[in-house]
Structure formats: structure tokens, C-alpha cells
Amino acid sequence: MRRIGLHVPTVLGRLRADRGLLLLVATVVALTSAVVGAVAPLGERAADRAMAAAVRDAGSRGTVVANLPRWYDDPAAKKRDPGTATEMQQDADFVRSAMPHGLAQVLRPGVASVTTTMLHLLDDGPGRYLQLAFVEAADGGPEVSYKQGGPPLGAPGHREQPPVQVAVSGPVAGALGLEVADRIPARDEYGRTVVVEITGIFEAVDEGDDAWQVATPLLRPTTGTADGAQRTAAAALVSAESLPDLRLVLPGDALSRRVLFAPDAAAVTWQQSASLEQSIASLQSGTGLGLGETTWDSLLGSVLQDGRSQVSAAQGQAQVLLVGLIVAAMLVLVLAGQLLVRRRAGPLTMARERGAGLVGVAAELAVESLLVAALAAATGLAVVLLAAGSVGWAWSVPVLVVALVTPALLGVAVADGPALRVPANRSVRRTRARAALLRRLGLETTVLAAAALSVTALRQRGVVGDAAGGNGLMAASAVTLVPAAGSLVLVRLAPPALRWMLRRTRRAVGAGPLFVAARLVRSGARVLPPLAVVVAVSGTTFGASLAVTLHRGQAEGALSIVGGDARLDARPDPSLTAVAREVAGATGVRASAAARVEDGVRVSAQGGSAVVRLAVVDAAAYDRFLRASDLPDASQLRRLGSVTGGRVPALFLGGPEGLRDEPSLRWQDTSVPLEAIGTAPDVGASVDPVVVVDAGALAAAGVDASPNVVWAVGPGATSALDAAAARTPGSAVVTYADELERRREAALPSAIAGLATASCAVLLVLALLAIALAASIDAPERATAIGRLRALGSSDRELRRTLLGEVVTPVLVAAVSGLVIGAVSAWTALGSLSLENLTAAPEPPAAVVPWWTALSVVLVTGWAVALALLDWHRVRRTPLALLLRS
User: Fold this and answer.
1) pLDDT tens for each residue of 786-827
2) How far is residue 62's CA from residue 298's CA, in Å, rounded to a whole number?
3) Chain center to CA of 31
4) Is 483 in contact with 539 (CB distance < 8 Å)?
5) 410: Cβ–Cβ under 8 A, 6 or more apart, which residues?
């Protein structure tokens, strides 16, 4: 400490003397550190909740299925094997034990199953189909209770063709007309016959048990129409005792053996999602697992990939907000360092003249800054640690470094200032001035180039988070670098404009405008104050636009996926057309429409094929419905008419271009030729292509599509559809309000909206601090000039106008520039931030800049007015005699 000249009493004395300004620096560091430190733990929790929600919402798409090898029994020596169920259980246990440990931790124990194809029941005409299914969970489930009869016990006395004993649920028995003790002959698609014996009618103890998801028709039959005939399909439960009979009467290629693992959504975290995805890919590729012919099927990898893309998009959006917040905080800290050093200019110069070394001066200032900045950062991070349980410190490092280094560097420059004497040689002075100009031009060129590169990166790659390698920081800086470049351009344009204004005010009546212009010419070339204000106001505008655009996109996405204010989902039923007419006449309902909406429908054309969402609507009624709702109109619905030339007119949305080249619809075992005549409306925010046809035209082509959806719009839509649902068995009502609430309460959107709101508030505070610090830095020179004007006889009104013009004009120009740049950044950059991943909409939402962002200009301008009036009151309190003597 002695070798570098560190004087502890001097450090302590400076801390006491400038405690107010140092407390402001500590507040900025603590506040910024707390905000950026909370992003990591809260963001990780939001990411975990988002991954869990993605897996939970995926439903059956998130399951992992192990397809066991088929049984190959010798037909010549085939006999009943009583150990069939035990063999199946052993195979399932082996699959469970061989699964990768990390993947096994997020999957439930699994359900083993043996299922047949659909068997056509031959006892009572066509249209009745039954699948036989053996289902066994790891804990022995599923549990059932018998209303009639009992469980299947098998038929070991039969040798060649025993009946397969099964049990059915109550709804299945009612739909297929089955009773206990019935023996029904059945045949598969290859003509092989089997006799099915009904031993009992059961009901499930827990319908939510994973075991029932293996064969959903076990509990509820499905009905439909094929070739104009009614078709009913269901499943029957095979027990462990009757499974050997099933294996005996049907060959191995007629039985599918699987073990289905449903994911535990709460156990899936963002950190482990990448390794889980790799484990699933390894299983599907057949590497690293010695299970013979066992194959694996799962869409869980794509579900995790979609969830990770949402998290990555949210991380990129958070980076955009954090970069602006950190840069604004660093600019305020630099302004605070300038004010601090200006107050200490006299003591620092004197210490240097008395022999103090520059290293010693820098060390003293660095120690002082370290004490203040480290204590403030520790306080902010400690608050986050206590509140959130963990903290992210990496983003607070730049703020801490600036708070530590700035006073030391500026202090050394001030202390060494008198040693840099002005040379008498004019050429040397010109050389120095030219070098200073080149340094400034180099810095400005660097900022402009960085802004251009960041904008290019943003437009080409978008913004990605740390999940993609963290290479999106350059793109995330675009929203901050563009305002910085704009402020540099503003500062460059200010001197010519101010000189022009000075020339104009020389001819003006009164001295006030001339004084203001003269003062602005002297102080208008400063870069840091307008840079801080422009960055802060621009960041506030962009953050508010991000939050409002996100909310607007969620509203549009919710309206699109519901299809109106409320939607009734039911089984296909012709009576839903009458329900739609009844709902349309209810109080508070503007319009209603019924339709048949089916996913997974195949459309083939000469240019390719695709799986589409088919919407069969009454074109006129649906057109009236869209006009009455807030959904986009589809005027081409009027073109959907009767069949012409053997082809049904259809509207297409999305899909390959070749899909419109003589397309053909394959649905309900019928092929319907289509004619693409226009663009379809988006039905239910479908990710697949959409095909819309008229119900009458499709019926004329021989396909009857009973409605399964009723939409309604208007304030009374929900209550009207609720009343209709009470009279419609098996129906459910989905409302726009519930969907919108679910989206806004989702983990990632709520986290980004909260961060945007917090960053707006902090940026406004930083803008006010930057204005106050800039006014304090110029206060001594401004007080001297105003004092001279007062001593020369200027009136209080002229002095007040001069102060207001000098203080308020730069702030107003910078604030308006920041507002404009922030609005332009929002309109141009929000489309590259992948907001559609958070709004769950098929397209990025249109950028919205709310009108109330202009209030930030009013706030900072009013703050500048208040500071100018305070200066004016200070000047008026100075005795005139003292001004004359000075």
C-alpha cells in the first residue's frame, strides 16, 4: 500500500464528503444487479414450467412406445401356453430395466399391452367392430369393478379353437348390443376367425389411469359413417388368464405387443431436456440397447425440441431487454463518475502537483469505488438470493466493472490534466486536434458498424438464447446499438443546427433566445447525456411495445384457436345444426355456425400429398359468422357452391403448391375429387394445411359430414353454449376468456411480460438520474453564466427562460428521438424475436406501439423543467453583491 501511495484517511474522507453521490451510485448498482440477477433463477423456473406444460399438453404425442418382437409360434405344433402373461411381463420388465437412466426418471413405469386389429363382429350385420386388448400396468392395474358377470378366466379345456373370454365396459356393451355370456364370431381383415365370449361388464375405478390410454376404445366406443353406413368400433379387455387363448387362436402377426411409457410432466426440466432428446434419438436409432428386435416410437423428442425452441426464444427476448438495461445503467454510472471527479478536480490536481503518483491516485479511487460497488452489488444479489433461492451474477459483472473503473480512469485524467501543457507550435496543436478527431471518428464508426452488424444478425438469424450456444448476443444488442448510433448522429447534427439557431436569434427581439442559443452552442456537443436519455427512452418504448404486442398476439391466438367467443365440441351429430340455429337466436349472441372439423385427413394431388385439417361448413352461414366476429373475413367462402364437373370446390390454406393441382380428398373410405378455387380461412390456428368445403357440396358427392363443432360470438355466447352442452351428451365448451387466461398465465409469456415491465420502470428511473447528473455536471458553469446575466441586469423572467431553454431543450430533443427510435425498433425488430413461440399463434403478431409510451417524454421533460426551476431559485438566492464582486 505504501509503494503505490495509498492513503487510507484520504479514501475515508472522500467517502464521507461525497456520501450522497456515492449512495446514488450504490443504488444504481444494487438496483441493476438485483434486476439482472433475478432473471437467471426466475427464467430457469419459468423454463422448467414451460417444458412441463409442453409435455403435459402434448398428451399421447409425448409417450414412448417400445414395440416388442412378435410371437412366432410353430403352426404345426401350436398349443396353449399358460405362461404367456408371465412372458409378457418379463419382456416388459426387461424393457424398463434397459432404458437409459435419465429417461427412465421422467417416465412412468409403463403399461404392457397385447392388441389385435379391429375384428368385424359377424352376428348382427355389418358396421360393428371390436378390438381385443390385454393391458397390464407395472402395478398390476387397471382396476375395474364388475356390474354384471365377472372377469375372463380363460378356457384351458379347449384345444384347437377355444373362445377368447373378454370383458367390456358399460358404454361398449350398450353401443354394440353385447350381454354377459354372449358368444360372437368375429373375423379379422385377412379372414381369420375367432369366437369372442363376454364374461362380464365392468366400469373403470379410475378412468385417468395410464393403462386406459393404451386402448381408449376400452371405455368409450367411437362411431362414424363410411360409405353411407354407420360404423361403431370399440375394444374388449383380455385378462392374463385368457391371453393364452388369444395367442392360440390368432397368429403372431395379428397381435401387436407394446410397452407404453407416459411421461411425468413435472419431472421434465429444461436443463435435462437436451439429454432426454438425445436418449430418445438413441433408442429410435437402435444404438446402445441390446433388446433384439425391439423398436421404439416416440414424438417426445419433437415435443421437447418445440419446448426448447420456446425457451430459447424467451431467452433471446430477455437478452434484448437486459442489454438495454445494462447499457443504460453503465451510462448513468459514467455520468455519476464524471460528476464525482469534477467535484474532486481541485484536490486531485493539488495532490498531483504535490508529487502524488498517478498509480496512487488511481488506486485510491479504485479502492473507494470497489468498496461502494462491491457492497451495492452484494446487497442487490443477496436480496435476490433470499427472495428467489438462487441468483445469476454474470449479467451484473459489466455494471460492477464500470462502477469500479470509471472513477479511477476519469480521476487519473483530471489529475494529469495540468501536465498536458498546450504546445506553442501550431502544427503540433493541429496534430493533436487531428488525432483527437480521428479517435472520435473511429469510436463513432465502430458504434455505427456494430449497430449495422447487429441489425443484420437480427434480421438474418433472429435472437436465440443460451440454449443455442449464446451466439445471439450480437443480434440482441441491435435494439440498444441502434439508439446509440442514433444519438451519435444527433450529436453530430446538433452543432450546425445550434449555430444556425444562434444566427437566427441574433435578429430576434429580446435577449432570451440569444442567450439560450449561445449556451446550447457551448454545451450541445456533449455526447454522454443525450446518449443516456436516448437509450433509456428508446428501451422503455421498446419494452412497452414488446409487452403490448405479446398480449395482443395472445388475444389474437386465443380467438383464432377457439374460433369465436365460445366453442362447443361434441361427437358428430346432425342435430348440432339445429343447435347452432338455436344458439344464434339466444340473447347476446351475434352469430353462430356449425361445422365438421377433422384433423389427420389425407389430401393427394399430382404435386404431392399432405395431412390437412378438413372443415366442412355451411358456406353462407360461416361467412355471416366470420363477418360478425373479430376473426378475419373470408370473402371467397361465397364461391363454395355445388359440385361442378364432378369436383367439389374447396379453399386451401398452406401446404405445398402442388397440393392444389387436381387434389383428391380421402375420407371415410371415400375418395372425393376437389377443385381449389381460393384461399381458406384459418380454422382453429391449425399447424397443418387447412381445407374448407361446403357441407352441401360434399353431401352431393356422396359424403355425409355431420357437425361436431358449434361456434358462437357475442357476450352471451358462453352461456348459450353452456345451456346447449347440458342437453348434448359428451360435449364440452371452450371459451375465449379461459383460453386467453391460460395463455397469459403460461410461464414464459408471463415472465417476459414481467421483465419488460420491470425494465421499463428501471429505464425510466435511469433516464431521470441521467438528466439530473448531466444537469449537476453543468451546474457550476451554468450558474456562472446565469450569474453574469443577472449582474448585467437581466430580468428574472429572462433568466428563467434561459435556464428552461438550456436544460429542457436537449432533454426534449433526446427524449423525442428516443421515442421515435424505440418505435421504429419495435416495428422492425419485434418480427424477428419469435414472439409466435410465446403467443402460440401460427404467425408473428403485428408490432404495436402503445400511444401512452409518449408519456415517457412528458415525464423526462417535466423532470428537466423541475431541475431548471430549482436552478433558477438557487440563482435568485445568490446575493447580487456577491455576483458583482465575483
Assistant:
1) 777 777 666 777 777 777 877 888 889 899 999 999 999 999
2) 7
3) 26
4) yes
5) 337, 338, 340, 341
Q: Which DSSP state fits 467?
A: G
- How many CB atoms neighbour CB 439 within 10 A? 10
- What tens digit of pLDDT does each residue of 39-94 get? 889 889 999 999 998 898 888 888 888 888 888 766 665 777 888 888 888 888 88
> How far from the centroid of its chain's Cα atoms is residue 541's Cα?
20
Q: Where are the beta strands (DSSP E) in 266-368?
A: 295-298
Full DSSP string of 289-355: ---TT-EEEESHHHHHHHHHHHHHHHHHHHHHHHHHHHHHHHHHHHHHHHHHHHHTHHHHHHHHHTT
- Bond into 572 cis (ω within 30): no
Q: Which three cell numbers stand for residue 760?
A: 421499463
Comparing CA positions, the residue from 318, 330, 349 lying closest to residue 543 is 318
pLDDT at 500: 73
Q: What dihedral angle (degrees, nearest 10) is formed by the CA atoms of 122, 124, 126, 129?
A: -60
Going by C-alpha positions, the residue among 639, 611, 637, 610 that lies closest to residue 624 is: 637
Cβ atoms of residues 37 and 384 within 8 Å: yes
Neighbours of 448 (CB within 10 A): 17
Q: What is the DSSP letter of 471?
A: T
Residue closest to 563 by CA, chosen among 723, 749, 717? 717
Dihedral angle sign, alpha carbons of residues 344, 347, 352, 355: negative
Most distant CA atoms of the chain, gap in Å:
127
CA dihedral 325, 327, 330, 332 (to 10 degrees): -70
What's at 578, amino acid-wise?
A: A
| Residues in the chain, total | 886
Residue type, 825: S
pLDDT of residue 544: 94
Candidates 289, 250, 245; CA nearest to 70 is: 250
604/599 Cα distance (integer angstroms)? 15
**Using H for helix, E for strand and C for coil, what is the string for 150-217?**
CCCCCCCCCCCCCCEEEEEEHHHHHHHCCCCCCEEEEECCCCCEEEEEEEEEEEECCCCCHHHHCCHH
Strands 128-137 and 111-116: antiparallel
E-assigned strand segments in 350-414: none
Give dist(CA 639, CA 82) in Å, integer: 64
CA-to-CA separations, 759 to 328, 539, 755, in angstroms, rounded: 11, 8, 6
Quick one: cell of 517?
Answer: 442559443
Residue 192 in contact with residue 162, Cβ under 8 Å?
no
Distance in angstroms (rounded) separating the CA atoms of residues 124 and 602? 32
Q: For residue 532, count other CB atoms closer than 10 A to its CB.
A: 30
Strand 229-238 versus strand 128-137 pairing type = parallel
Cell (9 digits) for 319: 437478452
Q: Give the start-end residues of each E strand in 532-590.
A: 566-569
Q: How far apart are CA 525 and CA 543, in angstroms?
A: 29
Residue 247 contacts residue 85 (beta carbons within 8 Å): no
List the grid coordinates of 809.
Answer: 431543450
Global pTM reads 0.84
Residue 848's CB is within 10 A of a number of other CB atoms, namely 18
Q: Count Cβ atoms within 10 A of the Cβ of residue 300 and give its class: 0-12 exposed, 13-18 middle, 19 or more buried.
A: buried
Distance, first Cα to last Cα, the chain: 42
Task: Report which residue type is found at 151.
Answer: P
**Number of helices and strands (H, E) in the chain?**
26, 21
Amino acid code (one letter) for 336: A
Using an 8 Å Cβ cutoff, are 218 and 129 in contact?
A: no
Alpha-helical segments (H) within 605-688: 619-628
| Residue in the structure block whose three cell numbers are 435578429 | 507
Q: Give CA–CA dist 867/804, Å, rounded.
A: 9
Per DSSP, the residues of 499-527 read HHHHHHHTTSSSSHHHHHHHHHHHHTT--
- Residue 763 confidence (pLDDT) above 50: yes
